[in-house]
Design brief:
This protein has one domain. 9% of the residues lie in helices and 32% in strands. The protein has two helices and 13 strands. A four-stranded mixed β-sheet has the order 1-13-10-11, with no helix packed on it. The longest helix is centred in the N-terminal third of the chain and has 14 residues. It starts with 20 loop residues before the first helix and ends with a strand. It is a multi-pass membrane protein. This is Transmembrane 9 superfamily member.
Amino acid sequence: LIIFSFDFCVGSEDESPVENLGQVLFGERIRPSPYKITFNEPKHCALLCQKQYVYADGKDMKKIRLLQKGMKLNYQHHWILDNMPVTFCFINQQNQNVCTTGFPMGCYVTSDGKPKDACVLDSRYRQPDSYYIFNHVDILIEYRDMSQDPNFLDEHVGGRIIRIKVQPRSIKHEAADKLDCGINAQPFPIRVHEKPDKIIYTYSVVW
């Protein structure tokens, strides 16, 4: 999923990471993200960005329709943090714990109320003929504490990241200065022909 094809929050190209030859040959393109994560510093409901839509010349409608198309086709985000793939874990319909290295940008509920793909994971995603944009992510980072370990380089090493998991959610934020990322926060359905005036993206980080 290329963020520049969809109207997501983007990072600075000045910080674009260097890809190796194998990634280039296989068509992989790594792009910087706007997420600000510092080792062992938790964050709760941090604002990532706000996207505004005015629909004056049709360009914004195309952006929304493209987002809807991506959600309907179950397009995925693929993240790398500290050179490690970020995983998305969930309990599937066979009651099995499944982890993948991509997570959906959203999901779709059909006109007869049937949830598709990731919409089956939350019983609140049930409004017919609606798209649920995953505009919030809970990022869980597991690490090994190395603050007391001997270091032959005489440099302070706080720890080593060993696993990163992400839990995407759809949240209907009222305003950028009135964020609510609680577990009971209402989801954000976008009806097929609806024209949302804004989409607010947020994230939380737990160590």
